[in-house]
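Blinded run. Sample ID left blank on purpose so nobody reads anything into the name before looking at the predicted structure. Input follows.
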Amino acid sequence: MSYAKTLDKQSLDKEIQFIREIMIEMLEQVDKEVCDFFLSLHSKLQASTNTTKDQSNFQAIREELHIINRAGKTLEIIKALSLYNILINIVEERFNINREKPLDRMQDAYDDLLHKGFDRQDLDTILESICFYPVFTAHPTESRRRTFLEAHSEITQDLRKIFELGDTKAKDHILYRLHLLWQTNLVRTQKIEVLFELDNLLFIVENSILPSSQKVLEYIETMLDHPLKHSPIRLGSWIGGDRDGNPFVTNDLMIEVMKIQHKLIIKFYIKKLERLVRELSIHNDCVQLSPRLSKSIQKDIAILDEKTAQGCASEPIRAKLYIMIKKLQNRLVYVNAPSAIMHTYSCPQELINDADMLIESLDTISSKYLRQFRHFVLLGGFHLMRLDFREHKDIFAQALSEILCLLGLCDNDFMRYKEERKIEVLNAALARPKMELGTIQEQLSESTQNVIEIFMRIAWGKKYINENILKTFILSMTTDASDLLCVLWFAKQTGLWKPSKRAAQEMIGAKADSTKVDSSMDSTQEDKLRARIAITPLFETIDDLNRAGGIMRTLVANPHYSHYLRDLGMQQEIMVGYSDSSKDGGIFASNYSLYGAIQELKALESELGVGFVLFHGRGGSVSRGGGTLESALLASPPRSVQGFLKTTEQGEVISSKYLNSSSAQFFLSTTMAALLKKTSYDVFCAQENLATTPTIAAKCSINAQHKQLMEQLSHISYKTYRKLVYETQGFIDYFKAATPLAFIQQLNLGSRPSKRKDTTRVEDLRAIPWVFAWTQNRSIIPAWYGLGSALSAVDLVALQECYAESEFFAATISNISQAFLKVDLCIAKQYNDFVQDPAIAQAIWSQITQEYDKTAQMLLAIRQESNLLDNEPTLQKSIFLRNDSVMTLNLLQIELIKQYLSTPYEAKRARLMEQIHSTIIGIAQGLRNTG
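Blinded prediction complete.
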């Protein structure tokens, strides 16, 4: 997150003091006893703030908590602390952005590049072509309910009214919202469903993301001084398409999500046009219609009812707007109609063309909101957000194995074949003509029929919603080239890949080593929509990342996949996973492996004649690829971006960045500015001529000396991490006992199960609960463990030089430092009491503390600080702001878990479970992520 110093410390302290006072005022109104407890706790916390934490410090707080417990006010004090954390977050968000001119980051970046010697014409070309593609996912899911999200948004506006507009009446509204939140459960009482996740996201999309994105488009259009042909922001979603390990995402639900998104965006357009109808009451004597607009109105006026047509007989702009509304209304009918519907839009471009006809007939002022409407259509199309489909690669291999066995092309042990044999069988299957799967459907198992239906439903969505409703088809845990060939076979049989004739001879009978890729071949009209899905491997583990280049070589050499790539425009999307690679080998080895895999893939482009489009599977926390997106962009390998950035936006990060339009505008403009900078360096600064390029372009590469150092760091950190997590006897038992994992798994946060498989292995636990559990007990080992041993084994001067000269190393160390400051081993040690075997607890705790000390010492030495983040005081203060309340919630959680484990009857356990879950939500709010 970017911490812009837009207001001084005195202003920040003033707002913090205000929310403390308003919190106390609210508590006095609702529960005087809880208010007294809150003040007493705050007093004890203040007394111990500047001392070294030990058992005596905790004891004073524990005594207060025991009094609260005996008074039956435990849940109330949890809620008070949690609401206080939420208010602190709101204030902090207000100070993290440039609220005065949030969009000016783009102009600042543009001017900076001009100053560095870039040509205006080249920058305009890049600005017009860049694309930021955030893909919103439900995991790790937002821990707050929609009620709290809406209150968060409103209180943010209230604080703005008070401190920027002087509207003191807004204080009453804050008290009103807090009063209602006090009477609302922090925790959902029911398991959240996928459609609830969608509802939360659509609330943010409609109220903040769409209007904020439109502002960005408007700003860029002004910079370019001509209308945009496409949107530089593309919205995506996994909700309804991500079924990897989520049994609740079905084929029927996927279609329902498509329809919901379609309905929302069409109604959004209708609402905008209805307002324009009321406003654009321009008489035909006052406007000179273009010939094509006049002709269009004459052609379509008959679709309006007689009364409406007569009412706007002398107001042609209104007449055209009414026609557009009618066509959009027919569009809603079209999706569900069993037969053809006349007079509707077949694609978004037709709607844009109609808007353009109106714009060209009006003056600049009169057409202002029509131009905004045009931006919305560029953004949302008829699909609102592009769905990505994701499923584990074995699902398709198992289904195809059954079909190929039925066809006599293999035995039913296809899954156990060696990779070479698999590819041989798949080549034979792909060489056959397209078959009608309906002819064999009744002979197939239900699971295989379900897989076939996936492709049929995607084809339906492309026909009835929009071609862009779904493109990316992700295969989780991709390990081999055959994984993608399995999906390619299904795509061919269902019409999602229609092989072009121009490569048919090459496909039939061609040898793998004789396939020559011609990247200069232009796509003809005949080849449009030949390849309608982008089969996308997801490389998640460190080993898979290291093998990604070899897998791509195999696929490009395959005649069938090469043919498919030609029909796809020689663009191969590849998703790289941050969270599982971190769980696999630790934070530094993960980051370095990702950098290396991306660098290798981009180097392969010219050799293979394929453009690799990267999709970054980032999470919210540092250990899942989180951190500042701007610094990550500028630290990525040379030529790795080139105008396109697709990345996941997950869980609580969505509300943090996008819940309020001011935050959304600031984040979007900051990202676009960084994308403009990075693309300019990627396109115009040759890697082989780094000496003459701007400093930042040189710093994003890793020279030979730094590479040797970082390979050593990666190797040592990997071994150290693996020794603890995968090689230490009893570690998984320690993890399950010393963290609130069991309670997290029962918390109604998201629709997905916490494990891929019902095993006790770390490998099968999802990265989200893995990180979430360690974050809750404050050791947060996924974000730093292994780094201390690696850094202490290398010369300090060399590390300091690398930190100063390498953008990648500096960004990695900076992100780890931010997460490391949230670690509190004094709290984490308290959770050791839950581990039944004291020998295991002591052995593992000893490793954690030793590694912590090494990491703390080395981070301070490399960053040359007395205290961590001294060089970033705003960020440091942000983390310290909530320390007291989070520590209290941790101590409460520990005491509640002790009671839960010793309680003999179910009714009390149920009450304790609710309280424990509430502490989990409160701690997540205080630390600002779930995982």
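Unblinding after everyone has recorded impressions. The beta strands are 131-137, 236-237, 386-392, 470-476, 534-539, 571-577, 611-617, 644-650.
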